[in-house]
Specification:
245 residues, mainly alpha, two-stranded antiparallel ribbon, elongated
Length: 245
Amino acid sequence: MASLPRQARRLSHASRFTRAIMKSGEKYLVCSICEIRKEKRFCPAVHGRICPQCCGEQREVTLDCPSDCVYLQQAREHEKPRPVAELDQASLFPDVEIGQPFLYEQKHLIVGLSYALAKSARADRGIRDSDLIAALTTVARQYEMLASSGLHYETPITNLAHQAIAAEVQKMVKEYREAEQKHLGYSRLRDTDVLRGLVFLVRMGFTRTSGRPKSRAFVDFLLQQFPEESSAIASGERQSQIILP
């Protein structure tokens, strides 16, 4: 009978030892970012497991979230476009009017400009929404000057990514005019048309991006419109999605 207490004591020690092991192992179950809260999901940006709070707070802020992350996709499904009234109005070219007739008449121009942006983003996977918007804004300012005064002034662009985007956009406009010249015998594309097309995309970019520093929501939207094997002309069936964001 005396052996029972000893056996009970051994079981008790074993139980405490097991709990100690489990407790010491808890450090491997905490969030890889805050190291405080318990991890709940795998984050491809850190290649580790993190807590939902850090996921929500750091998503596209400090984390370069890949487009195929299921948690990023879920978040985007619940995010509403940012109201235009809440944006910096000066950045939206308030003096440039864009009506439905223009969108209908220049839908091919808008598709071409959108394709140029998608092509730039595909060539440089580091491009974010802010890069596209910044480059579009710079080129739009140039056409604003050209349309109002006839003066051609190129604002120096120091950012290499922005340079590449602007160059692709300008190349598209040049090719568009050359195509008109070839088929019509003249080019009817006006500088004011290009300005409106650029401003339309600037406004779309501001409403589609989440506004977070590393957001690629606008980038991913454009890439979806133009699959890798497609072209601006072959993707004509997607025009309605681009014109009506």
